[in-house]
Write a structure and sequence with these properties.
By secondary structure, the protein is α/β, with parallel strands linked by helices. It has three domains: about 425 residues, no CATH class; about 150 residues, Transcription Regulator spoIIAA, CATH 3.30.750; about 140 residues, Jelly Rolls. It contains 27 helices and 16 strands. The strands form four sheets. The protein has a five-stranded mixed sheet. A five-stranded mixed sheet has the order 4-13-12-15-10, with no helix packed on it. Strands 9-16-11-14 form a four-stranded antiparallel sheet. α6 crosses α14. The two termini are about 65 Å apart.
Length: about 725
């Protein structure tokens, strides 16, 4: 019970500390948006910011995957909102009522649109795809928002927009005296925070800065009114901030056309918000060692923003700095987030008028601290962390945002991401394995004479196992690879086999590259075969009219295509005796026996005739004999719990069952006759008898079996070498 009370007290304390920081941040974002011509309506900005802080903190605390999460308005979204509202203010100069109404409506509209999008992405569990955005592009976006926040900080402190065209005025003493203390505040915060690693350091520095500013105002002889007129403080609110933001809006004066003109920036803001939530959630996950559910974070932030938008509030979401502050302060329960929300509401109700006494240099300095922090991370620190190419991309996006606008910067970043993806993916080798028919055989086991032919002529088969997604970039690399192989005269290839088993898909433009490949192979008299194509891929080649029965064919599997090529090579290079060897005694002579030994060897064999489909042996049977295939074809089948797999097929002149006979182990596979087959069986009893009566013949048999197994091992070794 005492532990529960202690945890509750810790949660409340942490929540209040987090609430103080959230309050300060929120007011600084209100100052960023309601600056310049909107400065007289700062009280409305306070209402917008604190309502947002309270609602978002409360809703996200209940819906986040982190029990200690603190959410609220954020610098990245606020920077873009400030950019949007500034454009509207310029368009509505001289129309104060329309200006305020349109700005408040735009802020609320943005929150609702962003919220709906976040909720949809989270519910559809699409948050994972955000991780595919290139890292330097993320850095460029965040560096750009850092620039917007930094320039906005100077506008808050001096009342003048920080632009390249008017930089000279910031060197005038009238303005230096306002921004220099803010810069000093940032330097002090950075130095002290780096030396004192305590969760109360930042809140204490904020309070000290406010106190020191008011002490300076007091001892300088200025009244609060004079300090406001001099630009050190905000003027006292003419109207008290209200929980009902919409009471300050005249709906008839809202210029919806100007709001809709900002849909580009709102779209850019959606991207930045999702990216920021991803980075914040990942950062909290790594620091706190707690698992994050990105889709849940997106959904809860979506609900919070929709509700906040309906109440006239601004965009907000999970904050890494405030959440970790809460965590380190002992807030490990949602109660902390609820208390942070309650603190903002209490201040709003009972002390909102005192918020006008917050020094501009502190609010501007806080923004400057956030903005320069992002710039330091992505412009200074990134120089030592990123590659030159990635770093240049970050800086390029930053320059576009600073000179042309945020939407243009985001568009540029997206365009560059696409180009980078195409270029980088084109560098990926789509060929997983490059094989030759000399080291990759079909599962159809050949006789020794046929194997000799394939050992010599198998290199005529050029086999490429493809992988990944094929498009014009990778397909062109494949074309160049085939061209280079054809130019290499050391191996005269006759067949190019492309295996699509690991290909996930292809672009329709790929057929252009394959048309060129077909032209190149046809001119060289080479046949090209494609294997393992499903209907979604094969139709591209059929529609392009590439498929024919002459030199461009489709096979259901790599094994079928290799077997077809082997048959062609054996037929081309085999002798008439080999192609017509249908007498078993002739086969024995080519295998291991001398002509005069065949009659004697036949005495130890038993002739067996099997009908098509009959089982010669079953998996698990005792192994007491080996078999010579005189004619026909047999297949080895492996029985699994859920299916049966074809291992190999064997034709005339081949041997099977020898391993079981030598090891006395049960049969590892079943053997089935694919057609009417004639076999000759040598059982263990007859083998032992032959060893006693005809040692020379038995020695020749053992030597043949050793050679056969050695050949299989050598072929397997070659295949492994090619794969690695």
């Amino acid at each position: 019970m005492d532990q529960v009370k202690f945890n509750s007290v810790s949660a409340v304390f942490a929540g209040v500390i987090s609430g103080i920081v959230t309050l300060t941040y929120s007011v600084s974002y209100a100052a960023l948006i309601f600056s310049g011509p909107l400065n007289p309506y700062f009280s409305v900005g306070i209402s917008v910011a604190l309502i947002s802080a309270a609602l978002i903190a409360f809703i996200v605390a209940l819906g986040s995957s982190f029990s200690f999460s603190i959410a609220g308005p954020d610098s990245n979204a606020s920077a873009i909102l400030a950019l949007m509202t500034n454009a509207m203010v310029i368009s509505l100069a001289g129309e104060p009522d329309a200006m305020l109404s349109t700005v408040v409506a735009a802020i609320a509209f943005s929150s609702i649109i962003v919220g709906i999008f976040l909720f949809t992405v989270g519910k559809l569990k699409l948050g994972y795809f955000v991780r595919f955005i290139p890292y330097p592009v993320l850095g460029g976006f965040l560096a750009g928002t850092g620039w917007l926040i930094t320039t906005g900080a100077f506008k808050v402190m001096t009342g003048q927009a920080f632009e390249l065209s008017n930089l000279s005025i910031f060197y005038q003493m009238e303005y230096i005296k306002h921004w220099a203390p803010g810069v000093l505040f940032v330097i002090v915060v950075m130095l002290v925070s780096n030396r004192i690693k305590h969760y109360l350091t930042f809140p204490v520095l904020l309070l000290l800065a406010i106190l020191i500013t008011h002490i300076f105002i007091h001892f300088s002889g200025m009244s609060l009114l004079n300090a406001s007129e001099e630009g050190w403080l905000y003027k006292s609110f003419e109207t008290k901030p209200s929980l009902n933001v919409w009471s300050s809006v005249s709906f008839n004066n809202i210029h919806w056309d100007l709001i809709l003109d900002q849909m580009g920036n709102i779209s850019a803001m959606i991207a930045v918000v999702i990216i920021t939530i991803l980075l914040n959630a990942t950062g909290i996950e790594l620091t706190s060692k707690k698992d994050a559910d990105l889709n849940k974070e997106l959904s809860s932030a979506g609900i919070a923003n929709v509700i906040t938008g309906l109440c006239g509030g601004m965009i907000g979401y999970l904050s890494i700095s405030r959440s970790m502050l809460n965590f380190k302060a002992g807030g490990t329960r949602p109660l902390s987030g609820i208390c942070a929300a309650g603190f903002c509401i209490m201040i709003f109700i009972f002390g909102a008028s005192f918020l006008s006494y917050l020094p501009k240099l502190v609010l501007g300095g806080l923004l400057l601290y956030l903005g320069t922090g992002l710039l330091k991370e992505w412009v200074v620190d990134a120089f030592f962390k990123l590659s030159k190419m990635d770093y240049c991309l970050v800086v390029a996006i930053l320059v576009v945002i600073a000179t042309a606008g945020f939407l243009e910067g985001v568009s540029f970043g997206v365009l560059i991401s696409v180009v980078l993806f195409v270029v980088n993916y084109s560098r990926i080798d789509i060929v997983q394995h490059e094989l030759s028919g000399a080291n990759h055989r079909s599962t159809f086991v050949r006789s020794m004479p046929e194997q000799t032919i394939l050992n010599k002529e198998g290199a005529a088969m050029y086999i490429l196992n493809l992988q990944g997604y094929l498009f014009f970039g990778t397909a062109n690399n494949l074309l160049e690879r085939v061209k280079q192989k054809i130019k290499d005269k050391s191996n005269q290839i006759k067949y190019v086999i492309l295996d699509f088993r690991l290909v996930t898909g292809l672009d329709s433009s790929v057929t252009l590259s394959f048309t060129k490949i077909h032209q190149v192979t046809s001119e060289a008299g080479i046949k090209i075969f494609l294997t393992h194509l499903d209907e979604s891929i094969s139709h591209h080649f059929k529609d392009a009219k590439l498929v024919n029965d002459k030199d461009f064919r489709l096979f259901p599997s790599l094994d079928h295509s290799v077997q077809w090529c082997e048959d062609e090579l054996i037929q081309e290079y085999g002798s008439d005796d080999l192609s017509t060897a249908n007498q078993f005694q002739d086969q024995l002579k080519t295998m291991f026996l001398q002509p005069e030994q065949t009659e004697t060897f036949m005495k130890y064999l038993k002739c067996i005739k099997e009908k098509k489909g009959s089982y010669i042996m079953r998996q698990g049977d005792p192994a007491d004999s080996m078999y010579f295939v005189s004619s026909g074809i047999v297949t080895a089948l492996l029985d699994l719990p859920t299916k049966q797999i074809r291992l190999i097929s064997m034709g005339s002149g081949t041997v099977f069952g020898e391993m079981g006979l030598y090891t006395n182990a049960p049969r590892t596979a079943a053997i089935v006759a694919d057609e009417d087959t004639v076999l000759f069986e040598l059982n263990r009893e007859q083998l032992e008898k032959m060893q006693k009566e005809e040692p020379n013949i038995s020695t020749a048999l053992h030597y043949f079996i050793i050679s056969l197994l050695s050949e299989r091992i050598a072929l397997s070794n070659k295949k492994v070498q090619m794969l690695y």
